[in-house]
Amino acid sequence: MTELTIRTERTGGHAVVLVGGDLDYDSHGRLDDAVGAALDAAPEGRPSGLVLDLADVTYCDSCGLRVLLGAQRRASEIGATFALRGAHGQPARALRLTGLDQVFG
What we know:
alpha/beta; Anti-sigma_ant; STAS_dom; Anti-sigma factor antagonist; STAS_dom_sf
């Protein structure tokens, strides 16, 4: 098991949440909290977009997938765009097997 790491950056009007490690039952709440903070605490107001960078995520279970869906929903509720980037390996397979790769585009 690899410890989940989360770092948020602001680029233009977007909040970019960089995630690493295992996104699973034990850690999904931390990402959910970080998404909420990224959407609610932008110094210049709410971001126009939310990007979750999964390039360093090594594992993602159903709890992690649920957080990704929730992030998309929360962004949509405030009128922000949403994008996933960098998913590869097991997380990309999980997205593909569940059909969520089509949901996230």
